[in-house]
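Notes continue from the previous slide.

Worked example: a multi-chain complex. Inputs as given:
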Amino acid sequence: MNSQELWKKYEEKMFIQSAYRLVLGTTSFDAETIAPHKGDAYRNERVAYLEGELFSLQTDPEFLALVEELSRRDDLSFQQKRIIKWQLTDMERFRYVPKDIFVEYARLSMESSQTWKKAKEAKDYSMFKPYLLKTIEMSKKLLEYRHSDLKGYDILLDDFEPGMTIEKYDAFFDLIKKEIVPLVAAVVKKEKIDDRFVYLNYPAEQQRKLTEKILDYMHYDRDAGVVAETEHPFSDALSKYDSRVTTHYYENNLMSSIFSIIHETGHATYNAQIRDDIAETYCFDNISSGMHESQSRLMENYLGRTRGFWVNLFDDVKELFPKQLENVDLEGFVRAANASFPSLIRTEADELTYPLHILIRYELEKAIFDGSVDVEKLDQLWADKYEEYLGVRPANDAEGILQDVHWSGGSFGYFPTYALGSGYAAQFMHAMAEDLDPEKCMEDNEFPKIKDWLREHIHQYGGLYSPAEIMVMATGEPFDPHYYVEYLKNKYSKLYEL
Amino acid sequence: MNSQELWKKYEEKMFIQSAYRLVLGTTSFDAETIAPHKGDAYRNERVAYLEGELFSLQTDPEFLALVEELSRRDDLSFQQKRIIKWQLTDMERFRYVPKDIFVEYARLSMESSQTWKKAKEAKDYSMFKPYLLKTIEMSKKLLEYRHSDLKGYDILLDDFEPGMTIEKYDAFFDLIKKEIVPLVAAVVKKEKIDDRFVYLNYPAEQQRKLTEKILDYMHYDRDAGVVAETEHPFSDALSKYDSRVTTHYYENNLMSSIFSIIHETGHATYNAQIRDDIAETYCFDNISSGMHESQSRLMENYLGRTRGFWVNLFDDVKELFPKQLENVDLEGFVRAANASFPSLIRTEADELTYPLHILIRYELEKAIFDGSVDVEKLDQLWADKYEEYLGVRPANDAEGILQDVHWSGGSFGYFPTYALGSGYAAQFMHAMAEDLDPEKCMEDNEFPKIKDWLREHIHQYGGLYSPAEIMVMATGEPFDPHYYVEYLKNKYSKLYEL
């Protein structure tokens, strides 16, 4: 069979896999947003079964042989070769795992996430602990079936961010520790920014209207995207033509939902701006976590927390909350959006202390996988590290180890990409500044110009290139975390007059 | 293999089919409620593929042989025998249809429904017409693959309501024509009930709160059910533990959403009250349309439009709309909820004129399938019949032939069950009255007592028994439409002092 005939066969098989992914993705979104919990057990069983069917398709020997055969063909286009390269890499994650273990893991992940949710509501880690320990055990067991050149936690780090290892993350976080920990300590000693207005009463109904304004401002295409409400904001993309972002409204916090929605829209924009000719290929799913996070952080922090972003929106905010913002002007609003103080909840953390929240999780994960920690005591270790790096200690499990969903679903190795993404974003912004002035664009109400730059230099490729390649293509040099550290130092030295 | 071993095999296969149904059902609900329309084409292709997979499972020769073998076994329990009986009947609908034709039909249905939606918005039948004609053609084509003892439209009628035929529906609708058409004409001549307050401004936000009150009042279990908003209200049940009801808020109509939500909750309650031991069997899906509709109509009309229903709710309604209802008391509210007048939109029609809306659709469907009508002119025929039976003529397609979704999805034979269900409900209410006084129950705030009666006599069985059997079991006699006609005559003679 000639290569293009083989390719057509490959595409047919991928279409089938994409059908399963679409309905399972939709069912998962439904479960996260609205499905009633009494249906959990019934749904879990059936979703686990179909995850198993998808797994069978992905590990079908005929399919594996087809991909391997294609990987040996020289007469494919560059694009086709790349797609096959990623597919082959990704297949290693599944192909040696027995199906029953995979299905057991899929079921455990669902049950564990659902239990985590209840445990968090009850602020009771003991409810969740057996699931967490089992999830850790299963995650370690899955590693035994990997045929990677890497070992242990390195495998997981590479899964979420190709090319990243403990060694490289250690270097990255050492720099954070060296430069940012003292910066946070210096800021703590300075006079606090007055952000008391942030914590007045902001009715959810009005916040919903603000969300619409922000989405309009960011030109989020409502004919190709959805916004919903969940306990934890997240984003998902069922296809290039179907983005999903969620947020959560706290009535005693104006900023929380604002920056959630800007963040998640950053993710959604990435998926929506992929090039048409690769939108229905493996490149759509192959975007690394760090790259994805760079685009959400870029929108949330590097754009969303600037004065420029709010020049054309602040009147709307005041109109929605006239009493609460009676004595607040644009400058005061933006200052409050950038106030830094040590806190307990990662998702609510400011831009400066944020990487320390990630540092804590990275150190714990590393220790879980090298066995240097007693997993029975993870909640205590969590609290200890918060005290060490941020000087605060959780008063209960909900603001401690129970705050994040990730571990319940077995996502170990994911957290570090959050800090890395912020690092990537700093370098992207530096490169963008050579072509346009983003604050000026926003002042001129030309947000699409910024989206165009991101599409041209980053988004259009989806996961066609590796993170390292995109970085060089978009910025002219390999990733250099000093852009990030310098950005934080400059910004916060000015803001707090250090 | 002994019968119980065979049965276990059958259950395993049914579990797999239920997994596909669950994710396809969830994806369909998502598409109806929130999915962005730019994702339609991508989703349609994939859903059609998986519908085909489910079709393959349902028509797998091994599965067919298994069911046939089970149907020959004498040592199954009564329940098992019944389940197999229904399964076998249902299989005839699919087993002789070529898969490619089935998939083509599934894809056409989705495209046709999506086009219908746009055409209705644009009030432009010409957009939808080619899809409707194609859907009619395909529906007729599918009939060629049926091996039923029945012919043509009778097959479709029997699909939706086992045992019903043109002959039986003709008799039913002849009675409606004889008794209800003159009653409607008599009511038109009387002084109108003052219901002007119904059409004041009722903000959707407040109506949403009223929906919550109504659901609480009806003891709708929010841990096993969802409420959402759609252009057309509907209900769905993904499992006994996961009901879905939707409604639509018109800000210039207080009653529309109220009776939609009561109606759909009637459907949801049926599915939620099925007996545990048959909740995950074929009996869950096997409830006939007429039986289902009897339970929604029972809640909407026979309970929801009585004074008793509102005794404990009316204060809440007034609190939500103090200005709009300033001069309305409980009696005036209930009278307005029962006002009858000829109108154009079926879903908004009052209880008395409602069966005439169905009569019109029944006559058109019958004519479509016996070929006595020029389908090119369906929109005109629709308008003519409205003029004939109700004395009103649609001013545009949206309030004429485009008003209902059913035909776009190929649901021919469904409409008549709506009137039949109202008929069933009258007889059920007559039987219920021998055991309890529903209005008194509601006045005493004991709605669950009514739900208990319905569970005991109807809901618990799901589709274990045929509609005719349930009717005899619950009421002691076969279906008799005179209960319905007498109910309408009594009620409206009193209300309008005829």
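Summary box: The mean pLDDT of chain A is 96. Strands of chain A lie at 225-229, 235-239, 242-247.
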